[in-house]
Amino acid sequence: MPTVRFLPTFLTAEPIEIEVEPGITLQEAAEEAGVPMGDACGGNCACSTCHVHVVAGFDSLEEMEDEEDDILGKAEDVQFVSRLGCQAEVGDEDLTVRITRESQVAFINEHPEHRGREGEIDV
């Protein structure tokens, strides 16, 4: 089974790794691992709150659809390795993922019980 490694966030001081079945989305993997990733639209490719940077294993992901590309165009800090966590499905290879600041802020806005636990980001 492939492993998804989530780099540290403002709520997770250390990287978090989780083994997942191929076909699971990065958003589902983050939720299962307890990693803070925004999900304002519930994974329907209608917002950019689950924006991530896939810093290792990017080429193993399927090419993004036009709808994802359009929504990603609304995100902050878009890079060549940007994907929407709700659309990027894990394949057979390991991945390393950085949750964007935008996504972490969205998570805090969606889950106010975590407010005050933010480390280095100013929300």
Topology of this structure?
Elements: E1 3-6, E2 16-19, H1 26-33, E3 51-56, H2 66-72, E4 82-84, E5 95-99, H3 101-110
Parallel strand pairs: 1-5
Antiparallel strand pairs: 1-2, 3-4, 3-5
Q: List the total number of helices.
A: 3
Q: Alpha-carbon distance between the termini?
A: 36 Å
Instruction: Look at the structure and give the CATH class.
Output: Alpha Beta
Helix content bin: 10-25%
Low-confidence stretches: none
How would you explain this protein's 3D organization?
This protein is an alpha+beta fold and 123 residues long. It has a single domain (3-114), classed as Ubiquitin-like (UB roll). It has three helices and five strands, in the order ββαβαββα. The protein has helices at 26-33, 66-72, 101-110, and strands at residues 3-6, 16-19, 51-56, 82-84, 95-99. It has a five-stranded mixed beta sheet with strand order 2-1-5-3-4. The longest helix is centred in the last third of the chain and has 10 residues, at 101-110. The chain is globular and about 35 Å long. The model has no long low-confidence stretch (mean pLDDT 92).
Task: Write a compact overview of the structure shown.
With 123 residues, the chain is an alpha+beta fold. The chain has 3 helices and 5 strands, in the order E-E-H-E-H-E-E-H.
Which descriptors would you attach to this protein?
globular, 3 helices, five-stranded mixed beta sheet, alpha+beta, 123 residues, 18% strand, Ubiquitin-like (UB roll), 5 strands
